[in-house]
Design a protein that fits this description.
This protein is an alpha/beta fold and 501 residues long. It has three domains: 5-97, MurE/MurF, N-terminal domain (Udp-n-acetylmuramoylalanyl-d-glutamate--2,6- Diaminopimelate Ligase, Chain: A, domain 1, 3-Layer(aba) Sandwich); 101-320, 3-Layer(aba) Sandwich (UDP-N-acetylmuramoyl-L-alanine:D-glutamate ligase); 330-479, Protein-Tyrosine Phosphatase, Chain A, CATH 3.90.190. Helix content is 32%, strand content 23%. It is built from 16 helices and 26 strands. The strands form six sheets. It has an eight-stranded mixed sheet, sandwiched between helices. A six-stranded mixed sheet has the order 19-20-24-21-22-23, with helices on both faces. It is globular. It starts with a strand and ends in a 22-residue tail after the last helix.
Length: 501
């Protein structure tokens, strides 16, 4: 794939002025001075903690062939492109230098609070079933065809994102399904990308430490549903925010819940059976994933695939051949037959949905292990407690406390638990998981929520190894055989919040 522009050609795309030789050829873009090399353009962006303008000389010393800044330095040994907002310039510059790779692919951008990871993986599976070559980018990493890719964040920084899209073009990928976070929209990480389809899964409270309030959070998501980015839209109008978005967006497309929807849903251990209703007819689907929320995710993925032009046969085949997604309602094997699941649910709505789905799987109790993260949206903590209390027993513990005291976070979560609800507290996450397993009987379901696929627990000055899936499997193995079950209620709950009377 031919790519690269001269500094002068790029300046036209960016509406930038050029100081120095406009004929210098640029073949790559970076926002990290340490990765600057011959042929690269270093874009100095102002971050939340550091200002890239302080590293311009370091980038030049590393070999950068040109720099892009908001203020021209007094002198420079390489050409300088001067723009009004270098962060906004990073995406378009990267896209142009890499030959506008999104125009050579069918790129699907999926946004929403919950479900992004599952929907993108479902779309990838459908592409595989249709004999295409899929690319997936998101929270649990990604893949390029069958080749796995390590990613540092849900949506890579703009320069990394465009370079990755270029690699996918060169690898013969036909469809890329990528998660688009609200942070990515606010920080312009997908600027310069053309999306064939943009999709909205739904919205619930999260990230208000960054966005301030739900309206601003919604606006960040809604920006994607503009002709600047997308060609067609798939929107879950069963979600109230989705219905609002459908009214605001000028993009044509499918309404999930109206044009495409599920019916005759039956929940079974490890799978969901439902009827997929499309404009072309109704089709039975046996999804190898539990949870009503995953049925909704499957319908969204089906609508996206219909918009991409795929027929119903590969859509059904792709959904039915889904592989396990790490930490997404993932059942942990137990030789004694206990029902224990690990899920990434870390928002009030996500927690409530997973608990409600688990309750449909068995006549037994649901025990939910829940913790809130430190240094993040504090307003949702009591709401998480209220959601956790919809389980028969909520087990409140630590998540990633970061710089905060776990006990302080737990106190805020407990503040949302209604009087009379049963709950148990243990700041030690492993001990909390062990306790939930110990209290469970053959008909009960244990949910370990919040961290999903994550492999570490973040404290103030260190991240220690901790994978919920590994720890849960270890505790299951250590507990031994299934015993005759007598319900045991929380033993350290405050008065009025222990065993029901």
């Amino acid at each position: 794939m031919n790519a690269g522009l001269t500094a002068g050609e790029l300046s036209i795309d960016l509406n930038a002025s050029v100081v120095g030789d406009p004929g210098v050829l640029l073949t790559d873009v970076t926002h990290d001075s340490r990765s600057a090399a011959a042929g690269s353009l270093f874009v100095a962006i102002r971050g939340l903690k550091m200002d890239g303008h302080a590293y311009v000389n370091a980038a030049i010393a590393s070999g950068a062939s040109a720099v892009c800044v908001e203020e021209a330095p007094a002198a420079s040994t390489v050409p300088v492109l001067v723009v009004r907002d270098s962060r906004k310039a990073l995406g378009p510059a990267s896209s142009a230098i890499h030959g506008h790779p999104s125009r050579k692919l069918s790129v699907v951008g999926v946004t929403g609070t919950n479900g992004k990871t599952t929907v993108t993986h479902m779309v990838g599976s459908i592409v595989d079933a249709a004999n295409g070559v899929a690319g997936v980018i998101g929270t649990v990493g990604g893949r390029m065809g069958e080749t796995p890719i390590d990613l540092g964040r849900t949506t890579p920084e703009a320069s990394d994102f465009q370079r990755l899209l270029r690699r996918m073009v060169e690898a013969g990928v036909t469809v890329v399904a990528t998660e688009v976070s609200s942070h990515a929209m606010t920080l312009h990480r997908v600027d310069g990308t053309r999306f064939s389809i943009v999709a909205f899964t739904g919205l619930s409270q999260d990230h208000l430490d960054f966005h301030g309030d739900m309206d601003e959070y919604f606006r960040a998501k809604a920006t994607l549903f503009d002709a600047t980015f997308g060609e067609r839209a798939v929107i879950n109008v069963d979600d109230a925010w989705g219905a609002k978005l459908r009214d605001l967006s000028d993009l044509d497309g499918m309404r999930v819940g109206v044009d495409v929807f599920a019916s005759h849903h039956e929940e079974r251990p490890g799978r969901s059976v439902f009827t997929l209703n499309t404009p072309g007819g109704s089709h039975p689907v046996r999804l190898p994933m539990g949870g009503r929320f995953n049925v909704t995710n499957a319908v969204i993925a089906a609508a996206i695939s219909l918009e991409l032009g795929f027929g119903v046969e590969p859509i059904v085949a792709g959904l039915e051949n889904m592989e396990t997604i790490p930490g997404r309602f993932e059942q942990i094997p137990d030789k004694h037959g206990r029902h224990v699941f690990v899920d990434y649910a870390h928002t009030p709505d996500g927690i409530a949905q997973v608990i409600a789905s688990a309750a449909q799987l068995s006549d037994g109790r649901v025990l939910a292990v829940v913790g809130a993260a430190g240094d993040r949206d504090t307003a949702k903590r009591p709401l998480m407690g209220r959601a956790a209390a919809t389980a028969n027993i909520a087990v409140i513990t630590s998540d990633n406390p970061r710089s905060e005291r776990p006990e302080d976070i737990i106190a805020e979560v407990i503040g949302g638990i209604p009087a009379g609800a049963s709950y148990h507290v243990d700041p030690d996450r492993r001990a909390a998981i062990r306790w939930a397993i110990e209290q469970s009987g053959p008909q009960d379901i244990v949910l370990v929520l919040g961290k999903g696929h994550e492999s570490g627990q973040e404290f103030a000055h260190e991240t220690v190894p901790f994978d919920d899936r590994v720890v849960t499997a270890e505790e299951l193995a250590a507990w031994g055989s299934v015993r005759s079950h007598t319900p045991i209620y929380p033993h350290n709950s405050p008065a009025g919040n222990g065993a029901p009377s």
